[in-house]
Amino acid sequence: MSTDSTTVVIIIGGGLGGLALAQLLLQNSSSIKVLVFERDKDENSREQGYCIGLDSMGLDVLTQIRVLDNLLRDESDAVYTLSFFRLVNKYLQKIIDFNAKDNKLVDREDLRQALLTNIDVQWNKRFISYKIDDDGVEAYFEDGTSVRGTILIGCDGTKSIVRTQLIPEFQRNDLRIINIGGTAEQNASLKKIQELTKQSLVRVFGKQGHTLLILPYRQSWIWALSWPEKETHEETNITSLTIIEKARQYFNNDEIIRLIESSSPSTCIGPYRLYSAACLRQNPFPNNSRVTLLGDAAHPMTTHAGKGANTAFADAFDLANLILNPSSSTLSEYEQKMFKRGFTAVQMSLFSTNMIHSIGWRASFRNCIFFIMRYTRVLINLISIPFRFYKKKPD
Ligand SMILES: Cc1cc2nc3c(=O)[nH]c(=O)nc-3n(C[C@H](O)[C@H](O)[C@H](O)COP(=O)(O)OP(=O)(O)OC[C@H]3O[C@@H](n4cnc5c(N)ncnc54)[C@H](O)[C@@H]3O)c2cc1C
Fold first, then answer.
1. Count of CB atoms within 10 A of residue 393's CB?
2. pLDDT of amino acid 376
3. Is-annotated flag, keyword Flavoprotein (predicted)?
């Protein structure tokens, strides 16, 4: 691949990954032409969700995107710093805390809006296929139009059409887990929830693999309830009442029931089923010099390790570097790196999903491990007290 005044990068999908790639290319080169095609009718035609957890991998990339400077500065009200990931039982008693100091929550809508700055997205353009020839690639759209470019990047998310053509045998697995999310105004009378969610993301383990995530955001609590499916396509019969009934049956905790009851049905996202790529050991990307993938299109994963967007940003960074400095590496080197990072994240996410939804002896085993971890920490802290005291003493 050569970069000269004629390099045209076609980006399919104006989601977080595609827009991050477009920004990184445009801010670092005036000679590359970047065309972004998005199936949505306009930027407001689809709910983007509430907020997104960024780890150091994602933040390292986003802090290099100039149009995000304002959004990511410490005083910005779109960004919220976390202190802990907290695991609790259905009585809202702490099981164990993990440090989350390097993580931030960012308003998803604000992030997407900022990433759209100066990008001339072509809306209402549903990609259907591509064709490669000797000197380029042609992208075809549902409206009968087509466009020609040097390279085409599939950033079209978890059900990627680009991937279907590039790697027809690639499959997503249905994990038979149902997820629904909502928001409720923060309420001082839910004392335990208020205390636990102070700068923390809280995962509550209920019965029979039911689990609830609660996080504070601005004046609200955002929650996501998920569980292993019992009947086929259970998600088609879920109402607000079913969710409240689930809170009663599987958590049986007054504060949790009131949290769910106080959520407005209009703020609910889902219910939807969870899918994931299998944990591939071999790189499935065909080393095609004209077409590649990025983000969820390349490595669809569950949300439970908070890695999807973060890996998409890291992919965007590596791919932008390759397109901007083509002599330093090849597309296959990008794909190898992206494969390793992406499928490590797929594996972590699947592990996390299975662990939090486990039932029976697996759930007991999980709880035992957390118990041991918690008390090992206490023991280490106790043992280290005299050493700390000794260190602090002046000479
Ligand atoms: C509830 C929830 C919470 C999450 N929380 C986190 C989190 O805390 N941390 C984290 O890192 N990740 C999180 N994720 C995952 C994260 O949202 C995704 O991994 C990330 O958005 C992937 O970015 P992407 O650009 O690859 O895909 P997307 O953001 O899905 O963008 C794909 C875009 O392509 C467009 N498109 C699709 N098909 C076509 C087509 N045929 N033609 C043209 N355009 C098309 C879509 O409309 C969309 O705009 C969460 C996901 C969910 C659902």
1. 6
2. 87
3. yes
DSSP class of residue 2?
-
Below-70 pLDDT ranges, the chain: 1-5, 328-329, 388-395
Burial 247-256 (b: 16+ CB within 10 A, else e): beebbebebb
List the residue whose alpha carbon is closest to atom 39 of ligand 1: 156
**Helical (H) or strand (E) element with 24:** helix 16-28
In the chain the domains, ranked by start, together with CATH numbers, are 1-43+116-168+278-359 (3.50.50.60), 47-108+172-277 (3.30.9.30)
Question: In the prediction, which pLDDT does 240 show?
Answer: 85
Q: How far is 274 from 293, CA to CA, in rounded Å?
A: 21
- List, edge to edge, every strand of the sheet that includes 220-228: 94-99, 84-89, 200-205, 211-217, 220-228, 172-185, 269-277
Q: Which amino acid belongs to residue 230? A: K
Q: Is the peptide bond before 271 cis (omega within 30 degrees of 0)?
A: yes
Q: Can you give the pLDDT at residue 389?
A: 64
Residue 158 to residues 289, 314, 332, Cα–Cα distance (Å): 22, 17, 21
Ligand 1 centre and the CA of 381: distance in Å?
Answer: 41
Q: For residues 357 and 367, what is the distance between their CA atoms, to the nearest angstrom?
A: 12
What atom in ligand 1 is closest to the CA of residue 297? 26
Across the strands, what pairs with 223?
182, 214
Token representation of residue 311: 């890996």
CA 11, CA 34: separation in Å to the nearest integer?
A: 7
For residue 345, how many other CB atoms are within 10 A of its CB? Answer: 22
Q: Give the pLDDT of residue 265.
A: 76
Residue with tokens 């609590």: 221
What residue type is assigned to position 357 of the chain?
Answer: H
Looking at residue 174, its pLDDT comes to: 96
Is the ipTM here above 0.90? yes
Q: Are the beta carbons of 54 and 309 closer than 8 angstroms?
A: yes
Residues with CB under 6 A from ligand 1: 12-18, 37-40, 49, 52-53, 126-127, 155-157, 161, 181, 295-297, 303, 306-310, 312
Ligand 1 atom closest to the Cα of residue 224 is: 1
In the block, which residue shows the tokens 């932008």?
320
In this prediction, residue 78 carries a pLDDT of: 80
Question: What is the spatial distance between Cα 151 and Cα 293, in angstroms, rounded to a whole number?
Answer: 11
| pLDDT tens string 127-186 | 999 999 988 999 999 999 999 999 999 999 999 999 999 999 999 999 999 999 999 999
